[in-house]
Amino acid sequence: MITYQLKRNLLVPDESHYIARVKSSGAKTLDDVLKKMVEEGTGLTRPQALAYFEKMTQIVLSFLEDGCSVNTPLFIVRPTIKGIFPNYSDIFDPGKHKLSFTMRAGSRVEPNLKNIELSKLKSKLPFVDTFFDGFSRQTSTIATPGKNAEIKGDSLLFNPEDPKQGVFFIPVGDPNTEIRALSFLRVNAKDVSFMIPQLEAGNYILKVKTGSDDDGMQCSGVLKVELTVS
After folding, report:
1. Which of 99, 125, 144, 196 counts the most CB atoms within 10 A of its CB?
2. Is 114 found in the same domain as 59?
């Protein structure tokens, strides 16, 4: 089974653009491959299996060094050169260009793709669906400083003791300013109740920051509509 999560594509401005990131079930090494090769019934010893693997590696490398592509049932690999050549007479320069290799699945791998089960994992990214202002009784429109409010969504759970996590108000036109909510009355995965900080009149973006994802990046979610403080 292959598991995956959806993450917002930060390379495009469209907030509805998500990409799938496969979550590794564990890293296997050459030692794991050799153990499988010498399992009972294969008739191979570990030194034999290692010798076969090393011999195949040397042959593939020698073909690549000769400028050949290598097409096997397991993989297809060929040399490529990356970089820009400003004119036709220019030659390879290690300072500007890079010799690399591209690899893709071979004929034995691609047919197996249809047999692999996929499972979507719940994303750690918070999703902010609605904002409710307790004083004005308005939803996703008005924010009243110093009054209670509630947001609803998913994956909203955060540590209220961590000043880097919580509910933040960001003035439109000043994205570097983040004003954190004063206090939190209830913090759940589906809803959060808190007190709105003292905000000057203007429009604000509401952002929720939770813990870090698997890559150590801070997880955050934004209410899609701006809130107005009058």
Report:
1. 196
2. yes
**pLDDT value at residue 59:** 96
Q: State residue 157's pLDDT score.
A: 93
Q: Note down the domain range covering 104.
A: 2-120
Burial of 12 (0-12, 13-18, 19+ CB in 10 A): exposed
Of 95, 120, 145, the last residue of a domain is: 120
Listed residue (223, 177, 176, 224) closest to 200, CA to CA: 177
Residue with tokens 């947001």: 151
Half-sphere exposure of 188 (CA within 13 A, CB side): 8
Give the three-state DSSP class for 20: strand
What average pLDDT does this structure show over 121-133? 86
Long-range Cβ contact pairs of 107-116 (< 8 A, separation 24 or more): 107/73, 108/73, 108/74, 109/73, 109/74, 109/75, 116/1, 116/2
